């Protein structure tokens, strides 16, 4: 059959999609247990959501939450660190612990036939970490070494400077890893106290997903976590969330990196929280602006100018207002031109060049038509479900996502762009060679350049 | 693992593999071309990858960029180039499959009429920026280049990394693109897998309609190479880089992908450095605290492999100390072989890793990519069970033997990457290596 290449083929009818069913229950000790069946492969995965992250670090102890999560697999219950990891290896376990501002998430995936053992090991790690001095000293040393290595990692340097400048004296103003001074001053007892106060069954959600029935999955969690009694010190909420800080006085900051081949850029300001009623219009805005390959920012900086391998924007929706930012790593010689283009794009979408009908449709369609692929694997589903638990989203969140995005109009997008992108507040952070870019910085017209120290 | 599929070879030589999985209403389109950086010549490196970029810039019948219509249809898409192959993939909602096939077939058949100098020049800049971002501006970013440069003689196809040399990328010409396309981007040099929520006979008909009419072309020339010169004595290299902590790389030649001893060496790497209970982590990081991180891998590719151990020194430690500890641990392993507990662990991990890779229909990896890999490298896509069996049949004696035969103290490259001005941290008698 001859094919018609005169035009692209039309899409067929949208396939119906049934979201995986999440069953929710609460154990007598307050632990929320969510289960999802996924029988495609013989794996079972447990995700433990602790809705406390690096933003709960005491002001003089940045890094406390992160090192606490790092200590969980350094020996627990009757097992030394070596014995624990031997046991994890024998079940083909993949353990992962990640910490963000708002949450600590620990996942363990293993072959389904070993899931009972996996749940027991996970419970041991979360409930009964040994927290021994010898292990603490070693882990602290590794974290200090990591901090040392960050001195030569432009993306991490840019993230850190950006957070510090946007959020002075605020829980979002530091990277989870913390600072050298804080890590050195930290005592093991502080980790124990933080763990007791934070890891409480009434606060935690366990999402179990994979190749077993809802009843079996819930049974596995109950067996491992049902006997857990929280510490009295966990009654008080360890999280603090002061109001977002005022805009920084300076508009541009440079961290000098001699002979850098590229400049690492962050351009942005404090944005909005996850609870914003503008969540869906902002997602569409971001798709048009810098959330996918064909977005304005990437097409301009990469596909038209060739300044970078890729540029993107994001609204980091957190419990409190997280950062809105544009991120790119650009050729050193083109730094100022790239920043000028970036600033233009952020300004123009607010009205000078508002989102077009075609852009709106592309942005909405990319979000809605691609939505089902976020529900292919057990771990993807668990991670999606964890977001519902973390931010208290409604049970029908997944099934209402598509209609809510489709309801977003051009006017909505322009309105949220006006409201949530403020060119006069944008801070530009550059990690790059000041000698190469310094002379042309005045072209940006952003005023006095703040020097960010290298370490 | 039961991964049923069908394979059909179209008249022009294109292999079409179809796997039905109705778990999610999506389809993975995964297209491999049997060309990578090993098809390049010295002085012309980085070209296969630069070419891959141009495949996203439009083709004759849709000359407006590859991403737009597909992202609008809800697709996730990308491509990648390595030494042996270039792949292009889309994961689309089932109703956009025809669109993806239209687009893939158009660039397979009709790329050149849409090619312009402007596109080429912009993508050259993008690639140079990709190189800056991922190699030049990244700590230890040049180590890989230094290693393959030393492992393989200058005319061996693995002597350079896929990203290539910056001056070669700058020297590439538009005419090279045309010749490259006509030589390698032919149906007979490609393998297409469609995996997901499809009906086999329907999508076979669709693929035949769109791809079947494309010109088969001539057979692509085989890669000519001499086996790598045997490393007869240890080679020590030093690279001063913008890093804070010194790092040691040790590399040996090893067998190609799927060849004898490949699976054994995979498991040796697992036992040596995977997880906190592995031998090297336990000794160097946990007990002696002389290293901050440790890694080992069997990097097996189509015409050869290399086995690599990497360790980063803790402050105050030298790479000589690290090297001695590594050598001791390795010698012990060769003497004693793995313990029963190590065998149990590495076999469970191998099985789990195998299954983890097959959880998705596509994307970077997934079932479609694995089917194409088996088809292209072995001519046998039905290899899942035998692939897993390669690991299940590994014995402690086998692991001991491959470690002894391949990981010889006198047949290795040892690269010290040290902070600028700290050559004292490197192994003594190391020769400076020039990479940029």
Strand order, largest beta sheet of chain B: 1-2-6-3-5-4
Query: How far is the first residue's CA from the last residue's CA of chain A?
Result: 66 Å
Whole-angstrom Rg of chain B: 23 Å
| SS content category of chain A | alpha+beta
Low-confidence stretches of chain A: none
- Lateral arrangement of strands in the main beta sheet of chain A: 1-2-6-3-5-4
List keywords for this structure.
heterodimer, A: about 450 residues, alpha+beta, six-stranded mixed beta sheet, B: about 425 residues, globular
Tell me what the structure shows.
Chain A has 455 residues and is of the alpha+beta class. Chain A has 16 helices and twelve strands. In chain A, the strands form two sheets. In chain A, strands 1-2-6-3-5-4 form a six-stranded mixed sheet, sandwiched between helices. In chain A, strands 9-10-8-11-7-12 form a six-stranded mixed sheet, sandwiched between helices. In chain A, helix 9 (279-289) packs across helix 15 and helix 12 (357-369) runs antiparallel to helix 14. Chain B is α+β, with helices and mostly antiparallel strands and 436 residues long. Helix content of chain B is 40%, strand content 19%. Chain B is globular, with a radius of gyration of 23 Å. The mean pLDDT of chain B is 97. The interface between A and B is large, with 78 and 81 residues.
């Amino acid at each position: 059959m001859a094919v018609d290449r005169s035009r692209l083929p039309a899409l067929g009818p949208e396939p119906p999609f049934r979201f995986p069913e999440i069953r929710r229950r609460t154990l007598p000790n307050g632990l929320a247990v969510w289960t999802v069946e996924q029988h495609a492969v013989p794996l079972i995965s447990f995700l433990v959501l602790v809705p406390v992250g690096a933003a709960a670090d005491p002001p003089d102890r940045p890094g406390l939450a992160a090192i606490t999560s790092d200590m969980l697999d350094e020996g627990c219950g009757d097992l030394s660190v070596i014995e624990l990891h031997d046991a994890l290896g024998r079940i083909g376990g993949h353990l992962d612990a990640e910490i963000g501002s708002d949450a600590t998430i620990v996942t363990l995936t293993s072959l389904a036939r070993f899931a009972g053992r996996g749940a027991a090991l996970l419970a041991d790690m979360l409930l009964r970490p040994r927290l021994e001095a010898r292990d603490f000293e070693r882990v602290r040393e590794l974290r200090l070494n990591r901090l040392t290595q960050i001195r030569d990692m432009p993306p991490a340097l840019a993230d850190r400077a950006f957070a510090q400048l946007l959020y002075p004296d605020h829980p979002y103003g530091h990277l989870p890893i913390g600072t050298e001074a804080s890590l050195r001053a930290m005592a093991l007892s502080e980790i124990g106290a933080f763990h007791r106060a934070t890891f409480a069954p009434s606060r935690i959600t366990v999402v179990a997903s994979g190749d077993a029935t809802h009843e079996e999955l819930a049974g596995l969690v109950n067996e491992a976590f049902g006997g857990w009694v929280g510490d009295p010190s966990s009654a008080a909420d360890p999280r603090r969330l002061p109001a977002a800080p005022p805009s920084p006085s300076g508009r541009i900051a440079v961290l000098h990196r001699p002979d850098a081949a590229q400049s690492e850029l962050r351009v942005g300001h404090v944005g909005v929280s996850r609870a914003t009623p503008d969540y869906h219009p902002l997602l569409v805005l971001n798709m048009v602006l810098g959330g996918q390959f064909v977005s304005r920012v990437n097409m301009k900086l990469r596909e038209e100018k060739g300044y970078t391998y890729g540029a993107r924007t994001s609204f980091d929706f957190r419990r409190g207002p997280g950062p809105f930012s544009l991120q790119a790593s650009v050729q050193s010689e083109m730094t100022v031109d790239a920043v000028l283009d970036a600033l233009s794009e952020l300004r123009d979408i607010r009205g000078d060049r508002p989102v077009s009908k075609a852009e709106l449709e592309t942005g909405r369609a990319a979000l809605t038509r691609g939505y089902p692929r976020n529900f292919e694997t057990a771990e993807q589903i668990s991670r999606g479900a964890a977001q519902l638990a973390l931010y208290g989203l409604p049970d029908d969140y997944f099934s209402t996502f598509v209609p809510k995005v489709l309801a977003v109009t051009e006017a909505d997008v322009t309105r949220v762009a006006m409201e949530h992108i403020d060119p006069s507040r944008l801070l530009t952070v550059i990690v790059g060679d000041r000698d190469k870019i310094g002379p042309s910085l005045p072209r940006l017209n952003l005023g006095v350049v703040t020097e960010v120290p290298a370490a | 693992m039961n991964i049923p599929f069908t394979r059909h070879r179209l008249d022009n030589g294109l292999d079409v593999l179809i796997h039905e999985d109705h778990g999610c209403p999506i389809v993975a389109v995964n297209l491999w071309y049997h060309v990578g950086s090993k098809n390049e010549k010295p002085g012309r490196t980085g070209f296969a990858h630069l070419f891959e970029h141009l495949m996203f810039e439009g083709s004759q019948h849709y000359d407006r960029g590859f991403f737009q219509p597909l992202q609008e249809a809800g697709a996730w898409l990308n491509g990648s180039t390595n030494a042996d192959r270039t792949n292009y993939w889309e994961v689309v909602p089932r109703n956009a499959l025809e669109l993806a096939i239209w687009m893939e077939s158009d660039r397979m058949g009709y790329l050149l009429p849409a090619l312009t100098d402007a596109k080429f020049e912009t993508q050259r800049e993008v690639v140079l920026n990709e190189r800056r971002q991922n190699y030049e501006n990244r700590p230890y970013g040049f180590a890989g280049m230094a290693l393959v440069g030393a492992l393989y003689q200058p005319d061996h196809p693995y002597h350079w990394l896929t990203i290539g040399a910056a001056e070669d990328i700058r020297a590439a010409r538009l005419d090279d693109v045309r010749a490259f396309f006509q030589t390698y981007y032919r149906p007979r040099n490609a393998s297409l897998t469609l995996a997901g929520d499809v009906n086999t006979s329907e999508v076979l008909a669709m693929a035949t309609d769109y791809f079947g009419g494309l010109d088969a072309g001539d057979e692509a020339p085989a890669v000519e190479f001499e086996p790598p010169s045997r490393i007869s004595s240890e080679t020590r290299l030093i690279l001063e880089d913008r890093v804070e902590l010194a790092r040691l790389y040790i590399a040996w030649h090893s067998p190609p992908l799927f060849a004898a001893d490949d699976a054994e060496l995979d498991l040796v790497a697992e036992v040596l450095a995977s997880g906190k209970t592995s031998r090297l982590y336990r000794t160097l990081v946990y007990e002696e605290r002389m290293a901050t991180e440790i890694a080992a891998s069997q990097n097996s590719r189509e015409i050869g492999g290399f086995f690599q151990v990497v360790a980063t020194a803790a402050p105050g430690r030298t790479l000589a100390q690290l090297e001695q500890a590594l050598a001791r641990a390795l010698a012990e392993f060769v003497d004693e072989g793995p313990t029963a507990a190590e065998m149990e662990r590495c076999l469970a991990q191998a099985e789990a890793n195998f299954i983890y890779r097959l959880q998705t229909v596509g994307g970077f990896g997934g079932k479609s990519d694995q089917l194409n890999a088996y088809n292209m490298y072995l001519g046998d896509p039905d290899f899942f069970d035998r692939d897993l069996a390669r690991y299940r049949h590994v014995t402690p004696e086998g692991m001991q033997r491959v470690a002894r035969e391949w990981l010889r103290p006198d047949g290795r490259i040892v690269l010290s990457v040290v902070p600028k001005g700290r050559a004292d941290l490197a192994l003594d008698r190391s020769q400076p290596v020039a990479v940029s």
